[in-house]
Here is the input.
Amino acid sequence: MERYFQEEIERAPLEKIREWQNEKFLRQVKHVWDNVGYYRNKMQEAGVSLDDIKSIDDIGKLPFLTKADLKAAYPYGLLAVPLKDCVRIQSTSGTTGKRVVAFYTQEDIDMWEECTARAIVAAGGTNEDVVQVSYGYGLFTGGPGLDGGSHKVGCLTIPTSSGNTERQIMFIMDLSATILCCTPSYAAYLGETMKEMGYGPDDIPLKAGIFGAEAWSEEMRRDIEKVLGIKAFDIYGLTEISGPGVSFECNEQRGMHINEDHFYAEVIDPDTGEVLPEGAQGELVFTSLDKKAFPLLRYRTRDICTLTREKCSCGRTHIRMTKPRGRSDDMLIVRGVNVFPSQIETVLLNNGYAANYQIIVGRVNNTDTLDVHVEMTADMFTDNVGEIQARKKVLEDGMRSMLGIKAKVTLVAPKSITRSEGKAVRVIDNRKI
Ligand code: DLL
Here is the structure.
């Protein structure tokens, strides 16, 4: 039987959802106009005033916010309440320049934790479950977000944070953890290590995993489910809009339900900004409908996906988004061709490799080069040159047909590519250096 954390909201009829969205949107635009000078200026520059916004159908009149706005307004320029009303900040994992700092009131935190609680219940969680949260704790939203949701559901929460893999496994086994929350790349690493330690899927008490924060393929899901003996659920979110739980998967595993009573989603053409119809692929844009401290309107996520309102057998009525295939800025342009790391991952996993690879892009004589270092698994490891050449050819052929361009594959020894405890670093683009 399907269970829900907030059934009346999660299964609300579309008219009801629209009514909530409309009401909250009008309130939110006024809150922003009154309290966020930075955005009011943007509206005025676009020739829009508060009177022009009569319902959520007018959302297209509002200007977009981008990461550049967040940088320009750092740190307090988009804050909409007095600092004394804020109880927390979280921040993105940006490696260069200023980070994004998002502020939360206690109400904002409660709303966010309800979103992750919905995800935990959708993954089968109840107050009898033991939830191990192996996302990083701290400025990153993964740990605190899932931790809060787990408390709201009443699960026993193990706040291991990421890293220290042996201790992670000890807690999973000794405390019979039933739900694991971490990045998919770390879940794969935990699975690999447990297998080496001699644990088969039936020995592992876990029944479900809630994995997100980075792009991962269906092939990777299949591998993780097999090695840990679990059902693996995707979860999506971003710091700017709250953190994990903006959307989450149900048992169907066919797209993630967006918590659209809190976050209004649009998909736009990334080049023109035009809003695209349901079913079209484009850049996801979110409007935060009821966050008080850091209420972003029409924030461009740079994540590429499609939306669907097709009926879902889980009974939830909220719109679904497909797995983002990666950020538009993760997309590599190699010799003029768009390449997503997830496409390369699909070729590898379909040929029996694990998701341990690194993509190295360079430029020689003004021509882009694409090298993929792929780790052999222990059972395929060999020093037979003929066999290695044959394996390399299979992968190079597969990549040529997937990407339409040639990639050079180098097979490397098992365990030679560094494992990630958080978001995996798959791409080294030497052209940028
Ligand atoms: O990654 C929040 C999060 C934590 C989500 C834990 C899920 C689980 P940021 O560090 O701000 O926040 O990064 C947000 O990560 O715009 C996407 O590009 C990517 N991302 C997040 N979830 C997924 C996912 C967190 N399920 C950025 N699939 C987003 C693909 C994802 N990409």
Observations:
- Residues 92-93, 135, 141-142, 212-215, 234-239, 243-244, 301, 303, 323-324, 327 surround DLL (CB under 6 Å).
- Residues 108 and 291 are 6 Å apart (CA to CA).
- The chain has a mean pLDDT of 95.
- The chain has eleven helices and 20 strands.
